[in-house]
Amino acid sequence: MSIDLQVLPSLLAADFSRLGEEIRAVEEAGTRMLHYDVMDGRFVPNISMGVPVLSAIRKVTKCHLDIHLMIVEPERYVEAFRAAGADSISVHQEASPHLHRTLSLIQSTGAMAGVVLNPGTPVHTLDDVLDLADFVLIMSVNPGFGGQKFIHGALQKVRQLDQRRRQLGLKYAIEIDGGVDASNIAEISAAGCDWFVAGSSVFHSESSATAVRDLHARAVTGRQILG
Ligand code: DX5
Ligand code: ZN
């Protein structure tokens, strides 16, 4: 699997009663990064997993663990998730009024720091933190649930971020999350995306390993179009 284009299976869609096996299967298909959704029932309507489950996962995988915090006051939990094994942590622009401070806090723990935009939030709201962020995550569904339909407007945001990155000479990765599948991943890649979160299209398929390989191959093809 190439270093810059990564498919990140989203564990929210995995069978929680067999998490270890589910992780092993996608690792064998070349997965280097796993996506882990934290929901609090306040910032988003759903509640998912927290710190103890992450600690358990950390023990069974060497993959990069990418933690997506969909919670209010995310700064209060950065250290706990880092201690439990997070390699990268992202917080929502909409949930973090002191975004600059929060991203710096994440980096001070040694983790990569990301900022997330909901479908209704424009890219220009990140103008003053782009030089600080290690990655920017574009939501292509409204956060809270897996299995939703890809919102096409997200593509334009990926293009804008890629353009800004070139203009400003910055190195942040661009990540997308929600409704990514075999039918759209090439187009998202062509728009300039680097990290592709995929939940249902990986774990609800007949073979998660085959799905990961297929998604990655399509992302590579899409990137060749971008040039
Ligand atoms: C949604 C989560 C996603 C979710 C994606 O709020 O942030 O990571 O697991 O699932 P799919 O790929 O099924 O849309
Ligand atoms: Zn997510």
Q: Descriptors for this entry?
A:
binds zinc ion, 19% strand, globular, TIM Barrel, alpha/beta, binds D-xylitol-5-phosphate
Strand content: 15-25%
Indicate how many domains the architecture comprises.
1
Major beta sheet summary:
8 strands, parallel
How many DSSP E strands?
8
The shape is: globular
Rg? 16 Å
> Mean pLDDT, rounded to whole units?
97
Query: For the largest beta sheet, what order do the strands appear in spatially?
Result: 1-8-7-6-5-4-3-2
Low-confidence stretches: none
- SS summary, helix count: 8
- The CATH topology corresponds to TIM Barrel
Order of helices and strands: EHEHEHEHEEHEHEHH
The CATH architecture would be: Alpha-Beta Barrel
Description:
- By secondary structure, this protein is of the alpha/beta class.
- It has a single domain (6-226), classed as TIM Barrel, CATH 3.20.20.
- The protein is 35% helix and 19% strand.
- It has an eight-stranded parallel beta sheet.
- Strand 6, helix 5 (154-168) and strand 7 form a beta-alpha-beta unit.
- The model has no long low-confidence stretch (mean pLDDT 97).
- The chain binds D-xylitol-5-phosphate and zinc ion.
- D-xylitol-5-phosphate is lined by residues 10, 12-13, 35, 37, 68, 141, 143-148, 177-180, 197-201.
